[in-house]
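Notes from the 1:1 (GR / supervisor)

We went over the backlog. Supervisor wanted to see one worked example end to end before approving the batch request, so GR pasted a single chain during the call. The sequence is below; no edits were made to it. Supervisor asked that the structure be written out right there so they could see what the output format looks like.
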Amino acid sequence: MKEIMQIKEQDNIVLALRKLAKDEKVVVNGSEIVIKQEVDRGHKVALKDLKKGDHVMKYGFPIGHALEDIGVGEWVHTHNTKTNLSGTQEYSYKQKLTENPFQNEQLTFKGYKRSNGLVGIRNELWIVPTVGCVNGIAEKIIKRFEKEVNDIAPFDNMLVFKHSFGCSQLGDDHENTKQILLNAVNHPNAAGVLVLGLGCENNEMVTFKESLGNVDDDRIKFLVSQDVTDEIEAGVELVKEIHAHAQNDKREDVPLAELKIGLKCGGSDGFSGITANPLLGRFSDFLIAQGGTTVLTEVPEMFGAETILMERAETEEVFHKTVALINDFKDYFLTFNQPIYENPSPGNKAGGITTLEDKSLGCTQKAGSAPVVDVLKYGEVVQRKGLNLLSAPGNDLIASSALAAAGCHIVLFTTGRGTPFGTFVPTMKVSTNTPIYEAKPHWIDFNAGTLLEDDVSPELVLRDFIDYIIQVANGEFVNNEKNDFRELAIFKTGVTL
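Structure output shown during the call:
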């Protein structure tokens, strides 16, 4: 394995691929560098002498500036580097598109065709509470149903979408809760859904049903707990009806073009931008070449790299929607007197990420090189095939839930530090380095850390990754499903009554 890496020719730093000792000598581009102090794996070392105020260059872009003179071989991190970002800015439309390097291979997966024309990769029974007050009732319904039915097949699993909202909310908060729950009810990974209400909540069942529009009455059932004497018994009977209508569900060959994949990272480290995130980017380009769809979110982690995405806007309209996506989130922070660029997190810094530009330039690589075809507001559902941007915060649970609610079948989640959670669709963890993969095999599903090894072919790793994603689409569980770690988290922005 290599000891050190210069990512781009323009970079004036190199990345340590293993821990480097003080006074150790390493060779970069034929020149010997003496390491001035111990440097952890994933952290940066100055390749050239930097004067105070000079740009620190990584990925071929500035990731900040030097706070003091930095000599060759010195550790470059938060103690001597600061972001260049401040306030808001104006943008102009300068399109730069590239040709997709992949061809349509006419690949398929085995999915479930729904009556509304959508395709699911799971056949699950979901109970979606309109309000958090009935979470416990929903769990009892599931338990009694399991006890009374010998075999839950063809359901792959049964889930309760527990949350704490649906009442005592105003404005955007109420609408966010309602919209995310509506989207969950309509998600094609569900073979059927019981929408469970209490009866006195703000998120009223009558208006909720109206907002859903036309649904398959055999697969979507509704129950208001205050309207019946025994809500557990009533709920079990409705679930049994759904179960009966699902008996003939089976997987069929479906073009890969039907897949919608969410792109997310969390617990990032210094390797995120050179292994796992570029792997997702190549997969994104591949899937789009097949006619499929990917969705990139966590807007605050686009700050500092947003112009790269803006240059890839398919049309000027999409460019202006991307500008609004970025500026609206900045205004959100400013409205609540919060710093726009107070990022990365402590874990990111420990892993070698120094500034928000450093983080964002690595983060946005998950989007590959395809044109941006649409920009979605929080709670909106994907309408166009290709690369989409989605408004959601960097918070892992909220952003992943937003991707699932937007219609994504799978969330691909890269991590260098590790995380066990999953949202309500398969949440595939892709490690940026081999040590975390080996330490947490019950969390991590795919190891992109092999890309750091000298004899590993990026093309073969991508092919293995494509094959694995198709296996998951065919029904193979990822770790969050095996562990039954599933969360629904909703973005809360305003006032609670």
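Supervisor's comment: DSSP finds 13 helices and 23 strands in the chain.
Batch request approved.
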